[in-house]
What does this fold into?
Amino acid sequence: MSAVLAAVLGASLAGCSSTGGKRAEDERAAMAAGGKAAVNTPRWTFAMVTHSGDGDTFWDIVQNGAEQAAAKDNIKFVYGHDKEAQRQSQLVQSYIDQKVDGLIVSLAKPNAMKDVVAKARKAGIPVITVNSGAEESKAFGALSHIGQDEKVAGEAVGEELNKRGRKKALCVLHEQGNVGHEQRCDGTAKTFRGDLQKLYVEGTNMPDVQSAIESKLQADSGIDAVVTLGAPFAPTAVKAAEQAGSKAEIDTFDLNAQVAGGLKDGSLGFAVDQQPYLQGYEAVDLLWLYKYNSDALGGGKPVLTGPQVITRKDASALQEYTKRGTR
It folds into this structure.
């Protein structure tokens, strides 16, 4: 999907060039690398508002992708986030009041976002959803949704656990009420032939996360796999298993430099990457295409950026990209 998307976007940009061909592409690449716009369209303002908490490396990568695309597309990019759904909604309203030219929002808790997305559409502001809320995106009037299908991603985890001979797994949910997290665990349970249990933790308190996982592993020595739903929680789960004296394999959704290192040294089994950089980059690019040429991708279906199962053999090749904040 990402290869097709890249080809489509590349063709669209080539059509904007007065010279065309490789020379024009090289010129645009050089300008973008230098932080200069590669197009001469108006200086539109796009705002992104996500449900990220403070210090979440996953959303840093999404933001990096969005900023890179914004520099290329001559876009003024602004970013806001709040893990509390009501405050996230208020941030979106503030950007509507500022009359931005496009909005990118995540729908981790869609019911809290429905009305404000409707207000944006009523104000004539195009909206693209990213990461979470694929099922609600079209109904809310968004142009497109960019991300992975969380149920499909969960199913991929279940299948990978089966390949590894795991029999009893713990799925650690770090944000209660996040529909995407529930879908990940439910998808895993659908394909996993063993027993899957859910463990709810408070993701903003890492010592408590470690303590909760450690206690669960001590109480049930049959657990042979722990699945965390975000990269920052994987190293914490590794520590919990060590303290509990458990040999459970630690696996995770999402990728960052620390996870890539864990895959390489064997402390982690596998990771499921949804390519967050691509989510931010393509969201800005698709808004630009819509504003410039009334283009839309997906045909009413989500534009998928994952899942991609990453293992030890992939880690070395990806480490360079994780260190620069693009994977």
In short: The chain has 13 helices and twelve strands. The first helix runs from residue 2 to 14. The first strand starts at residue 45 and ends at 50.
